[in-house]
Amino acid sequence: MKSKRLGFTMIEVAIFLVITGIIFVGIAVGTQNSIFQQRYNDAVQNFTEFLRTVYSETMNVQNEKDGRSEKAIYGKLVTFGESYNLNGELIDNNMSAIYSYNVIGDIGDIESGSLLETLVALNANVVVKEENEFRPVGYVTNYKPRWASAIQEIGSNNNFKGALLVVRNPSSGTVYTFVMHDGNDETIEVNKAVHDANLDNALSANPLRGFLEQNKFKMEAVDFCVNPNGVGEGGLRKDVRIVKGARNGSGVEIIAEGAGDRCAPSD
């Protein structure tokens, strides 16, 4: 009479463990990919909303109650790739340094000419001197991309460097968008200008004026490549674009893959 076999053989146990391990790895990888995708989408959406907020704050500006009745806020300057932080300290080159400043100017008769020429005539600036100290105007936004992602250039993994000027026409109230991004690896070093002015006890500091006078700002579209892997990494990148002539937040678009996306993975 044959006895009944109880339990499993070592081979059956081994096969069970292998299958269970494969299933577990599949679930873990799927979960990890899902979390990565969610974080990536969050980083792209958050950066898009940051840019749209720039337009919202320009259109719904509230002049500061600080006694500067002879000044008005005309919009926002957003810089990408400054070398110094708000404390005048050198920034790690691997960081996506992004700052948003208020642009103020005199209140007076509007000069004829282009809007940029008008801003020069109104002494537009992002720096003021108060109590013998230079500082950026009002509250400064130091934007940091979510989940250690990076805002990069088209065709390379270099951090985006340049500036964005979103301002209202003092006469009509219409919002205009100007971009400074000519591939010369140049931005407006506001924090350095403030640091140097305080260090040298300069009579004035206006890091914006020279760029306005030299016609550095152009009315054109600009693309930002959001890289979820951080600085210096290839792979998936999403194109966030400000269209040419953007007048409000609807001009900031997330470009779908294959629909004119200019942020294809770089080598």
Characteristics:
alpha+beta; 5-stranded antiparallel β-sheet; 11 strands; 267 residues
Write a structural description.
The protein is of the alpha+beta class. The protein has one domain (10-62, 70-255). Helix content is 27%, strand content 23%. The protein has helices at residues 10-59, 115-121, 190-200, 209-213, and strands spanning 71-80, 98-106, 127-130, 133-136, 141-143, 150-152, 162-168, 175-180, 222-227, 238-242, 252-255. The strands form three sheets. It has a five-stranded antiparallel sheet with strand order 5-2-1-7-8, covered by helices on one side. It has a four-stranded antiparallel sheet with strand order 6-9-10-11, covered by helices on one side. A hairpin with a 6-residue loop joins β7 and β8. The longest helix has 50 residues, at 10-59.
Query: How many E strands?
Result: 11
Summarize the amount of helix as a percent range. Answer: 25-40%
Radius of gyration: 26 Å
Q: Which strand-content bin applies to the residues?
A: 15-25%
Biggest sheet strand line-up: 5-2-1-7-8
Outline: elongated
Question: Span between N and C termini?
Answer: 71 Å
Tally the structural domains.
1
Main sheet summary: 5 strands, antiparallel
What's the total helix number?
4
What structural class results from the helix and strand content? alpha+beta
Mean pLDDT: 83
| Order of helix and strand elements from N to C terminus | HEEHEEEEEEHHEEE
